[in-house]
Amino acid sequence: MNYTSKAKKKYYVVKKGKKPGVYYNWPDCQKQVQGFPHAVFKGFVSRKEAEAWYGKPIGEAPAASPAKVSTKPLEKPDIHKLEALYPPHQHPMDDSILSSDGIHMTLSLPETLTIYTDGSCLVNPDGPGGFAAVFLTEDGRELLSVTGGEPRSTNNRMELRAAYEALKTVSDGTVHTISFCTDSRYLQQAFTKGWVAKWKKNGWKTVQGTDVLNRDLWTALDSLMTMHRIHFQWVKGHVGTKYNEMCDRLAKKEAMNYK
Question: Which residue has the higher pLDDT, 223 or 172?
């Protein structure tokens, strides 16, 4: 996997938003454009670039303040504790999986499924996070969505939580054949390129010797995956793929519950 380093953006110009102007960090800019129809904004690394796009002089970006950044690593999470505090929600998308009273679900998932998942963190890391999974039949009929969130998380953790909750839901005693669609290379390649197997062999250490992040979820996912026939499919995010977009919206909505 190739990684490309990017210079950090220090100037955010909002031409059309709740309060147009210049902002010096993404969270402040996000407040002005999130939920605003047809917002026009852009981030820049240099003051010169920002002024050229804005069409007028702007002030120098203030020195970064450590006060807004968590200097402590996230506490090592316990997935069972998190499930008790922030359990997932199941939403039927098809009446055929409802019981006769129309309220309590009695899951009867087909052997072959397509599952889309996504995760979102409003401020990454250590901000409100949400996850979502959407279940479809082999011929594309909508069955079920599973959503949830946590008040402090990361983008990657929410991607993994979405996958974990999806596979836990299908662990119903049937061996399912699943087309698993995700826009997370982190999740997809960890299994398709054998990263998880190497981490296990190395005592859950990376090749650099550091602890693997989100070990609790990786361990749980690895266990659940052995129960099914899973084919990972990477899908590019934010290009209009229906169920990828649906998962993105649901995940962000869940994250907003913890703002």
Answer: 223
